[in-house]
């Protein structure tokens, strides 16, 4: 696994073999960050990486200057590895061991970008619950974006706040954005 861009471009990271993960491929990471580069200046973005696994996506954000980053995963081995790697690279990443759904239910913070990479075999209703919890709890900033990585067998384009999706091989990134109420926007001006 390597960091594909930013300050630490090309740096290799070697997670333990026994972690229960399916890391996002370099091709998918590159495609994702090409999209995000067109929408965001990464400096000082608040990032939430759920189902963080090895922390690969968190490191990509950190290498590009995003700060602070919160990485959540239910596996203690993954969290330990993220903490170790963040310390080694001096990344501003807070790693939290938690059931992701419990974290989303209780979280009060908001983020500019939320990235979720659940196990591909997670039931459809659980993928939908991620979207529902994020928007019900107002966790996404108005100009923010949530991205869920999933297999082509999971469909999320019927969900509220759906923006678009992109397919790369067997992986799909589905993007969600806060839908503005045009009357609210006019009142703010």
UniProtKB/TrEMBL annotation:
**Has keyword Electron transport?**
no
Q: Where is this region: Disordered?
A: 1-20
Q: Known InterPro entries for this protein?
A: DNA_methylase_N6_adenine_CS (IPR002052), RNA_MeTrfase_RsmD (IPR004398), SAM-dependent_MTases_sf (IPR029063)
Q: Which domain of life is it from?
A: Bacteria
Q: Which EC class, in a word?
A: transferase
EC number(s) for this protein? 2.1.1.171
Keyword Ligase applies: no
Q: What keywords tag this UniProt record?
A: Methyltransferase, Transferase
For this protein, what is any one GO molecular function term?
nucleic acid binding
NCBIfam families from the entry?
Answer: 16S rRNA (guanine(966)-N(2))-methyltransferase RsmD
Q: What is this protein called?
A: 16S rRNA (Guanine(966)-N(2))-methyltransferase RsmD
**Source gene?**
rsmD
